[in-house]
Write a structure and sequence with these properties.
Order of helices and strands: EHEEEEEEEEHEHEH
Number of helices: 4
Low-confidence stretches: none
CATH class: Alpha Beta
Shape: globular
CATH topology: Adenine-n6-DNA-methyltransferase TaqI, Chain A, domain 2
Strand content: 15-25%
Number of strands: 11
Strand order of the largest sheet: 2-9-5-7
Radius of gyration: 20 Å
């Protein structure tokens, strides 16, 4: 039987991002802006879409408890319509923060491989039902942080974790590439038809 371990035991930190109440009101005197990763920036394929990074402005200084994102962080939606997860695969060019609609799992990399953690969450989110995926009466996600920290995941040797994480990332990238090829083929097909019948 495979051992399990809770997220609180394999993560250095588990936290949420910037709450909306910190956003500066229109007309604020002194504004500071920085990039923000929100729900829209996480694709259904589990990738961060850099084109969907938002700009967050606030007045004054950020509270000390607010943490920026670092390479290896695993992000997951705790609100919104669909559960999604992504991994920060490379460092950002500038300090970037998560939104309050996301939970950030910062793995203790002496215990767990970030890509394996992301793989497990991705699998859980693809299931029709998972006890973590609680919803409000509006049917929107409403995942409690207390439940998240207690979530048990299969605990296997690091080399096996790394193999699973790498294989999942490679397959995800292949799926994304295939989707892009199909989308481009569709555009080519439409353009061919338009040009063909325009010449008649």
């Amino acid at each position: 039987m495979i051992d399990t371990i809770s997220l609180s035991e394999v993560c250095e930190q588990i936290f949420t991002g910037l709450p909306p109440r910190l956003k500066a009101l229109p007309g604020a005197a002194v504004l500071t802006s920085f990039p923000l990763i929100g729900i829209r920036a996480i694709t259904s394929d589990g990738q961060l879409d850099i084109q969907q990074i938002e700009e967050f402005s606030f007045e004054g200084k950020l509270p000390k408890y607010i943490r920026s994102l670092v390479q290896g962080d695993v992000l997951m939606t705790i609100r919104g319509s669909n559960p999604k997860a992504a991994i920060v695969e490379s460092a950002f060019n500038e300090t970037t923060y998560p939104s309050g609609n996301l939970a950030v799992l910062r793995a203790d990399q002496s215990k767990i491989v970030p890509s394996y953690l992301w793989s497990y969450l991705s699998n859980a989110f693809k299931q029709d039902y998972h006890p973590l995926l609680t919803r409000a009466t509006t049917q929107q996600l409403s995942i409690r942080m207390a439940d998240l920290t207690k979530l048990k995941i299969p605990y296997i040797p690091m080399n096996k974790q790394r193999a699973i994480g790498n294989a999942t990332l490679a397959l995800r990238n292949a799926v994304i590439t295939q989707k892009k090829v199909v989308a481009q083929s569709e555009k080519t097909f439409v353009a061919f038809l338009a040009e063909t019948f325009c010449k008649l």
